[in-house]
Amino acid sequence: MLSYMDLLRSLPIGLYLEQPITGLHRLDARVKFIWLMSFLVAPLLANPEWRLVLVGLLILITLLARIPLRVWKRQMGWLLMFCGLLFLLSCIMPDGLAVNHQPRLPEQELTFNQSGSTEPLPQPTSYRYVLFSQGPIEITRYSVDLAIRTSTLLFTLVYSTNLYLLTTASEEIAMALESLMEPLRRLKLPVTEIALTLTLSLRFFPLVLEEIQNLIRSVRTRAINWKKLGLRGTTQVWLTLAERLLQNLLLRAEQIANAMQVRGFTSPDQHRVEWHQLRFKAWDGVALIGLVVFWSIRLIWGGAI
């Protein structure tokens, strides 16, 4: 069983794979961001088949990019297990309100055939709304459709974002967003300040996880007997840990601010720092062509927008 610290390391937030350099690493951050937005928007109002295709496409991209198994197996494994559990729960849960209704016609009226016997009429098709019914468990077409929609949507949203953060450095993300938001400067929006804030935020996430891991280690090494503490004592311990975590995070933020001041940082516009040079390459053009094919299939086969 994974420990709490292993679970924290498995979180997709702020995780970046520096080595090895994969094909996704070499793509332009702007192209990858457009692909990410496509994966986030494409499931909306799409049919279940298209949602399953998106899940398979994300897994295929991970395999083709040759990302090491040790990197993504734990994250994808936990996510697939959670989505599978969500799928099963959605299938067996009721698909609507349990309301008893009175039929408009007598029960025997539709069972009479032309000869006057009471044998049931044969069904014109093999369609069945209830796919499985055994005791209190009943699975219908609507519940299966709802289960596919919810589980695939969760997987697509979480894993596509994780894959983007895994193969794109925070500096590249900031520069890509600043480049894509360049037209907003005409509206006098602080585009550079937004990009700088995003960069510092992405850099700060690993520090937050590190502080949480340190506090968890400190609690585990003390072997606290939670049963003897009771509810009041346990609450006091967790409040103390939360206060200590807040103090440590504020101290880290102050250290980052002091480091920027020592290096002569004044403002994003006056103290311009080029973290990463964006370059459009041939593979980026291939990725954009693939994006056109992706949306063409989505509009033709994936369902109405």
TrEMBL record:
InterPro entries: ABC/ECF_trnsptr_transmembrane. Keywords: Membrane, Transmembrane, Transmembrane helix. The chain crosses the membrane at residues 52-69, 76-97. It is a multi-pass membrane protein. One of its GO terms (cellular component) is plasma membrane. Pfam families: CbiQ. It comes from Planktothrix agardhii (strain NIVA-CYA 126/8). This is CbiQ. It is found in: Membrane.
